[in-house]
Amino acid sequence: MGLSVIKRHHPGGFMNTRKLLAACAVSITAFAAIDAAAVPIVGLVNTGANSTAGQQDTNYSLTKTGGNGPAIGSYGYESSGAGFPFGPWLANSSTSQWLTPLANAGQTFDSNAAGIYTWTLQFDLTGYDPASAFFGGRWATDNSGTILLNGSTLLNPSTGFTAWSSFSSTGGNFNAGLNTLQFVVTNLQQNGGNPTGLRVEFTQSDVTAVPEPATLSLFALGLAGLGFARRRNASRRV
Asked: What DSSP line would sit under 91-128, residue for residue?
């Protein structure tokens, strides 16, 4: 009488495999959701946000070419918002304030020729996907202005100092590391009563993190677990 081989099925083992599959899938989905979550871009700060009236705002460095007038420093000052050039300028608020080259917001510049004032703000996207980065906001200038992101001009010129102008970033201009945002203000020639300034408010920004190596390892382990569970389940069905 020959021996017969009896293959036993393990319903309980099949159910455990299904639970393992489900757990692995949930884990992978959770890690993917964490890594894909967009966060605000650190370093995009409104003018005057971290200073008080009459103090320098060291977030925005300042350089000047052309024009004439009193010497200026490496940073501008948060304006007091009292007296000339207010009211023609938009009123300061708790959200943002005007920056001016000197503490006296009404100081006259550029009586002989137009002056170019470049206000520079830098932010770091190390660890983030630059292709996912975006920002938007509004700004005002005395007189006109253009915005450069890493040397590329954004098509969002400022119309002046009595009303806001909107701006937003464009894809492909961000760097994986340090990024430079420049607000270039042209102060037209005028003999007397000729101040200049910058006002910036960011209303939106977001960027997605690049997955950390540890997270990628967890993805790999999750995928390996799925493969092992499927092979185990297939072998038990034989």
From this structure: PP-SS---EESSS-TT----SSS-EEEEEEEEEE-TTE
Q: Rounded to an integer, what distance in angstroms lies between the CA atom of residue 5 and that of residue 227?
A: 28
The dihedral over CA atoms of 177, 129, 150, 205, expressed in degrees to the nearest 10, equals: -110
Two structure tokens written together for 102: 């000197």
Q: Do 204 and 169 form a contact (C-beta atoms < 8 A)?
A: no
**How far apart, in whole angstroms, are the C-alpha atoms of residue 93 and residue 90?**
9
One-letter-per-residue 3-state SS of 41-80: CCCCCCCCCCCCCCCEEEEEEEEEEECCCCCCCCEEEECC
Would you state the structure tokens that stand for residue 209, as one six-digit string? 């993190």
Whose CA is closest to 108, among 184, 198, 196?
196
β-bridge partners, 86: none
Count of C-beta atoms within a 10 Å radius of residue 226: 17
Phi–psi pair at 234, nearest 5 degrees: -65, -40
Predicted confidence at residue 79, as pLDDT, reads 95
Number of Cβ within 10 Å of residue 139's Cβ equals 24
Report pTM.
Answer: 0.78
Residue 108 has pLDDT above 60, yes or no: yes
Report CA-CA distances (Å) from 36 to 30, 128, 214, 226.
10, 10, 15, 22
Phi, psi of 148, rounded to the nearest 5 degrees: -120, 130
pLDDT reported for residue 171: 74
Nearest-angstrom CA–CA distance, 106 and 69? 13
Cα radius of gyration (the chain):
29
